[in-house]
Amino acid sequence: MARLPRLYVPNIPQLAQARFAKPLALPSDPTPLAQLDLLAAWLREVALGQALEQRAAVHAWVLLNDRLVLLATPAAPDSIARLIQAFGRRYATRLQHGRVFTGRYHSALLQPGHWVLPAQVWLEHLPVQTGYVDTPQAWPWSSAAYHAGTSHSTGAWLTNHPDYWLDGNTPFERQARYSQRLAHKLLASQRQQIEHALSGQWALGEPAFLAGLQGRASRRLAPVPRGRPRKIRPEPPAGNT
Predict the structure, then answer these.
(1) Structural domain includes residue 23
(2) Which structural domain range is residue 93 located in?
(3) How far apart are the C-alpha atoms of 143 and 151, rounded to whole Å?
(4) What does the alpha-carbon distance between residue 52 and residue 63 come to, in Å, rounded to a whole number?
(5) What tens digit of pLDDT does each residue of 73-122 get?
(6) Among 112, 141, 145, 162, which lies 20 to 30 A Cα-Cα from 30?
(7) How far apart are the two ends of the chain, measured CA to CA in Å?
């Protein structure tokens, strides 16, 4: 079956996940500090290049032993693909020769004002969810500490999404509120909706938002309902019983 083209709508943020063909380490191995530091430096390098070219604005990121996850707003249909490809070229030529990713990255469109911050919390909670650390801010290879205000170095190169800026009137207020978001985590239903949209590569938002995107999207926004369309039986002519 032919694979779907990339889902893209101008100025709509995306959550993107690319899994590594070979994990940096097994769960039982020590954390590969040097490799993760290299990958983080290369990600910063390519993301800054994309920002200078006005191709993509990266809002949040995380690197794990088995994947790269980004929250970004692309300026063109291929912006995120180019960013991940540039990262992959550095990975393939400087750290691990050969295939870098298991296949195409997966991505989901997110409704601003509703799903951007939940998706950012989901992304930055992955090191906790996968058992690396007890709190998101303790994982150095993500933007969690930057957004929570406990470290500047992990996200000084990011472009914060407007939803993050609207979360408080001052940097201290925004960081405090975001720290609460990280501490409270997400509802299980929110996490499931994010993961479903990401795995299926669909859009996540309210029905009115999705309806408004129909004419601007590169392809359909949601899966086709399973099964055949329901047949509608014609009404009998008037007067027949």
Answers:
(1) yes
(2) 14-209
(3) 9
(4) 22
(5) 999 989 999 999 999 999 999 887 788 999 899 999 999 999 999 999 99
(6) 145
(7) 48
